[in-house]
Design a protein that fits this description.
The strands form five sheets. The protein has a six-stranded antiparallel β-sheet with strand order 7-3-4-5-6-9. Strands 11-10-8-12-13 form a five-stranded antiparallel β-sheet, with no helix packed on it. It contains seven helices and 17 strands. It is α+β, with helices and mostly antiparallel strands.
């Protein structure tokens, strides 16, 4: 806390510093749970995927669809880290897929948004070679088809520096953990996006323009996850004629009913610096 006071005038300024500790885990990362956390989550597998970060950490076992949540107190009581971050995921192509319907679900909560499936995949750098297809089980059975691209964690060839992971038996580990489906032609998808975001900067409303890959990944997450974008204001994007024709990519899109009309300020409503005037 810092305090400044003007002696001749009965006025003062206060400045506060807040210390905030946040989780080291992000969405779509693979984690290795300690045994105590696994038992608390109704004996969920120690290898899980983080599906969402909010006021709770949402986890799911991709091999059984069992789900669980941890609040801040539970997480910081027995912390754990990701064993595979988003940038470390490899690209695979789906060669064959078979849905799995008959599974013995024991006690606990299970996801109803996903579908189990047996999948055979090949790394993209192995296409056209004699490499054998890799079999795994995934939670993405409701959206994957033959020929689709998917990001996954290559457990069999990964070098993981994690004490909990090192204690696990190899028989408990799958060869690959598929995390999320990806869509090709990212450049066309970015150009053909029908919405944009706005943010406040120096008291005025300006458009967020950036070529950063992380920002584009965030926009893709908004398109693919209705729950994520329900509290985000999305504005209609005016696309040029040449861009409106094509850039039609097979990928999730935001419906027009979810978009807000863009705010256009008249010249009389702004000052000489473009800042909005208020009464």
């Amino acid at each position: 806390q810092w305090y400044q006071r003007r002696v001749p005038i009965t006025a003062g300024n206060y400045k506060y510093t807040f210390f905030v500790e946040i989780t080291r885990i992000c969405k779509d990362e693979v984690v290795c749970l300690p045994l105590s956390v696994s038992r608390y989550l109704n004996h969920m597998s120690q290898i899980a995927i983080c599906t969402r970060i909010s006021d709770n950490i949402h986890l799911m076992d991709p091999l059984t669809l069992k789900i669980g949540q941890l609040n801040a107190g539970q997480y910081f009581r027995d912390q754990f880290d990701a064993i595979c971050h988003q940038k470390q995921l490899r690209e695979f192509m789906v060669m064959n897929i078979e849905p799995v319907y008959n599974t013995d679900k024991q006690y606990g909560s299970y996801s109803h948004k996903h579908q189990l499936a047996d999948v055979w995949v090949l790394p993209l750098n192995s296409l056209g070679t004699d490499d054998q297809e890799i079999h795994t089980r995934t939670h993405l059975g409701n959206i994957l088809q033959c020929g689709d691209y998917v990001l996954g964690f290559d457990v069999a060839h990964a070098v993981v520096n994690n004490a909990v992971f090192d204690k696990m038996k190899q028989s408990q580990l799958p060869d690959i953990i598929l995390v999320k489906k990806i869509y090709p032609e990212k450049v066309k998808r970015n150009k053909g996006r029908n919405f944009r975001l706005r943010r406040l900067r120096k008291g005025s409303v300006t458009e967020t323009v950036t070529d950063d890959g992380d920002y584009n990944d965030f926009l893709e997450d908004l398109e693919e996850d209705p729950e994520l974008r329900k509290n985000v204001n999305l504005y209609k994007r005016q696309k040029p004629q040449w861009m409106a024709e094509a850039e039609e990519v097979i990928a999730p899109k935001v419906g027009l009913e979810e978009l807000l009309d863009d705010l256009v300020l008249e010249p009389a409503d702004t000052d000489e610096n473009g800042n909005m005037l208020t009464e």
